[in-house]
């Protein structure tokens, strides 16, 4: 294990421990264990089926995005599914969402697709997810009643309806910023200006030797400019309205299935009786929480968000903590097992996947400017 991996585990474990403490500090441990024993875990079976169905749709969506670019070789379903499951499995082990970087690395090794192109398609996926989360949040806030007077103390802060509104605004700004960046990259004239600025940046080092500036241009500026071009090829989907509509449809199905799995687990959890829309709100609020500090498997952060969200709908702290902890395990373990199986099938060592060399800079970058 290298130092970065070890540091990631240590930092992530510390954040998880702190989040667990604040999520469960008001719940007696014996009561929590007693509640977990009362859960009817038969409901885990249909929930696990729904979870894996959602990930099959995620793989289908990624394949759809990858194959939207005529310059990229056609990727079969398995070629998208295995890297995706390995990436999500790694997110359950390490902090910093390293699985999002592992996916395009594995894709490059298996399908010979440039890393930056693959990474751009992952970014497109995330943009669809964030945009739908924002849309769901707006729908939830319009249809679910959350008292303006409700206040819940968490980690020294007062959490209320206004905090949720602010989180929604922040996610909206993030989605808009990402969309603007994609539009800029996809406009050829703008992309050329960006690349020209990157290639001319070494001239700012006028106080250094000409040889040094030339080396910076070849070893730094030109690879970055090549990455910009590869990113544009990864965003090719955004120029096709029909494919965009297809991805929107798949994204809606993915999140509907995800919300359904939360709801199914609830049927086995005693003392919890909230509507499907309220459970969808719980899922969205958890997603907002785990978008903050990224810890291995989101343990602790997930529970903190779940306990807070369920108390908004009148669920007592003990029931909220027990359900959230059990549901988190249900959501994570099938994905973890599927990721292990995928790594075994395609023969990927997840520890050494990051030792790949970076993409070479295309020779034509700079000549086109």
The quaternary state of the protein chains shown equals single chain
Summed over residues and divided by their number, the pLDDT gives a mean of: 79
Strand percent estimate: under 5%
C-alpha-based Rg, rounded: 23 Å
Q: Characterize the overall form.
A: globular
Strand runs, count? 2
**Helical amount:** over 70%
Unreliable sequence segments: 361-368
Main beta-sheet annotation:
2 strands, antiparallel
- State the order of secondary-structure elements, H for helix, E for strand: HHHHHHEEHHHHHHH
Structural class: mainly alpha
Q: How are the strands of the biggest sheet laid out side by side? A: 1-2
Overall number of structural domains:
1
What is the number of helices? 13
Distance between the termini: 43 Å
What structural keywords apply?
disordered C terminus; 13 helices; single chain; two-stranded antiparallel sheet; 2 strands; mainly alpha; 369 residues
Structure description:
- The structure is a single chain.
- The protein is mainly alpha-helical and 369 residues long.
- It has one domain (3-355).
- It has 13 helices and 2 strands.
- It has a two-stranded antiparallel ribbon.
- A hairpin with a 2-residue loop joins strand 1 and strand 2 (157-160).
- The two termini are 43 Å apart.
- Residues 361-368 have low confidence and may be disordered.
């Amino acid at each position: 294990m290298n130092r970065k991996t070890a540091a990631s585990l240590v930092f992530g474990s510390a954040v998880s421990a702190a989040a667990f403490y604040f999520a469960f500090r008001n719940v007696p441990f014996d009561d929590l264990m007693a509640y977990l024993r009362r859960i009817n875990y038969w409901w885990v079976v249909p929930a696990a089926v729904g979870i894996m169905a959602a990930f099959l749709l995620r793989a289908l969506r990624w394949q759809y995005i990858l194959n939207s670019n005529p310059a990229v070789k056609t990727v079969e379903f398995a070629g998208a599914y295995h890297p995706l499951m390995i990436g999500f499995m790694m997110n359950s082990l390490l902090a910093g969402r390293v699985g999002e970087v592992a996916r395009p690395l594995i894709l490059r090794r298996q399908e010979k697709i440039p890393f930056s192109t693959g990474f751009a398609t992952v970014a497109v996926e995330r943009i669809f997810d964030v945009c739908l989360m924002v849309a769901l949040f707006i729908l939830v806030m319009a249809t679910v009643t959350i008292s303006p007077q409700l206040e819940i103390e968490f980690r020294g802060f007062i959490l209320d309806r206004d905090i949720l509104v602010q989180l929604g605004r922040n996610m909206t700004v993030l989605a808009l910023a990402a969309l603007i960046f994609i539009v800029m990259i996809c406009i050829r004239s703008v992309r050329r200006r960006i690349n020209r600025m990157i290639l001319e940046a070494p001239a700012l080092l006028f106080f250094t030797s000409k040889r040094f500036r030339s080396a910076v241009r070849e070893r730094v500026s030109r690879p970055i400019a090549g990455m910009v071009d590869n990113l544009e090829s990864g965003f090719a989907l955004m120029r096709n309205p029909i494919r965009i509509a297809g991805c929107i449809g798949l994204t809606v199905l993915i999140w509907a299935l995800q919300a359904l799995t939360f709801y199914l687990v609830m049927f086995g959890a005693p003392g919890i009786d909230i509507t499907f829309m309220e459970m969808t709100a719980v899922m969205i609020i958890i997603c907002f929480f785990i978008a903050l500090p990224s810890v291995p498997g989101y343990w602790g952060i997930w529970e903190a968000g779940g306990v807070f969200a369920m108390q908004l709908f009148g669920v007592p702290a003990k029931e909220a903590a027990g359900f959230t902890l059990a549901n988190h395990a249900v959501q994570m373990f099938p994905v973890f097992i599927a990721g292990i199986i995928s790594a075994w099938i395609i023969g990927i060592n997840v520890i050494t996947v990051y030792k790949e060399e970076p993409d070479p800079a295309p020779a034509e970058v700079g000549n086109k400017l």
